[in-house]
Amino acid sequence: MWKKFKAFLLKIKTNSYVYISHEAQIKGRTYRLRLMQESDIKEVLAVERDVYFGEVPWTRSNFLLELRNPLKHLYLVITDNEKVIGFAGSRVRRENCHITNIAVASTHQNQGIGTYLLNEVKKYGKEMNAKELSLEVRMSNKNAQRLYRRFGFVSEKVLKGYYTEIKDDGLRMVYALKEEEHASN
Ligand SMILES: CC(C)(COP(=O)(O)OP(=O)(O)OC[C@H]1O[C@@H](n2cnc3c(N)ncnc32)[C@H](O)[C@@H]1OP(=O)(O)O)[C@@H](O)C(=O)NCCC(=O)NCCS
Fold first, then answer.
1. b/e map of 15-34 (b: 16 or more CB within 10 Å)?
2. Ligand 1 centroid from CA 15, angstroms
3. pLDDT tens digits, residue range 74-119?
4. Best probe residue, ligand 1, of 87, 101, 143 (max atoms within 8 Å of C-beta)
5. Is 185 exposed, middle or buried (0-12, 13-18, 19+ CB in 10 A)?
6. Is residue 155 part of a domain?
7. 58 is in which domain, residue-wise?
8. Cα–ligand 1 centroid distance for 113 (angstroms)
9. In CATH, what number is assigned to the domain containing residue 35?
10. Mean of pLDDT values over 135-158
11. How many domains are contained in the chain?
12. Is 10 part of any domain?
């Protein structure tokens, strides 16, 4: 209760989002959610290497730039026994909350963690008065597309040749936050 009140006061003072670290029960296991720190980047890159077969689509400097970005942003990690096993990043510009990156270590996939992370970003987007969540996904990444569709994202546009290095098209997907609020009213 005190934590929430403190966060509320801080929010008024700084006019920014205060993410409250917390434990989460996902499929009967306890994890911890917290803001990504620069000191987490090494472990975040290890998750990337794990899921992208040794590649790191985002380098250390990409993450550093994001964490230091003056635009409103939220970068989260999820830990299992203090080991980073997943992360999600997003930034807000005007009424758009863009999901820049999300990954869950292969040992922990298909257990609801990706969905949990998306929900945390969704709460953030709503709090920031965004009207939509958006993201780009590789056309060939059917697993991720399935997760997004299940979550409620819809395809908006095919981005021809979007991923130049891996020679793949991109798919822009969006999730309307306002519509959902109206629907639930
Ligand atoms: C895409 C990704 C983040 C999804 O993470 P995840 O933690 O496996 O996601 P979830 O577990 O929430 O959902 C995945 C599947 O598990 C199922 N699932 C969700 N909760 C579950 C639970 N409690 N028990 C069993 N299965 C569950 C979902 O129904 C979903 O099934 P589907 O594939 O038939 O839709 C992960 O696969 C990943 O890191 N991929 C590599 C990186 C990547 O592609 N990132 C996206 C870039 S755009």
1. eebbbeeeebebeeeebebe
2. 33
3. 999 999 999 999 999 999 999 999 999 999 999 999 999 999 999 9
4. 143
5. exposed
6. yes
7. 21-184
8. 7
9. 3.40.630.30
10. 96
11. 1
12. no
Return the biggest CA–CA distance within the chain: 51
In the chain the first and final C-alpha atoms are separated, in Å, by 27
**79 inside domain:** yes
CA of 145 to the centre of ligand 1 (A): 10
Pocket of ligand 1, candidates 29, 47, 78, 104: which has the most ligand atoms within 8 Å of its Cβ, to mutate? 104
Mean pLDDT of 46-71: 94
What the block records as the tokens of 13 is 């003072």
Q: Is the CB of 49 under 6 A from ligand 1?
A: no
Which is the closest atom of ligand 1 to the Cα of 51?
41
- Note the pLDDT tens digit of each residue in 40-56: 999 999 999 999 999 88
Q: In what order do the strands lie in the sheet with 29-35?
A: 22-26, 29-35, 72-80, 83-93, 96-104, 132-138, 168-176, 154-163
Tell me whether residue 117 is in a domain.
Answer: yes
The overall pTM is greater than 0.85: yes
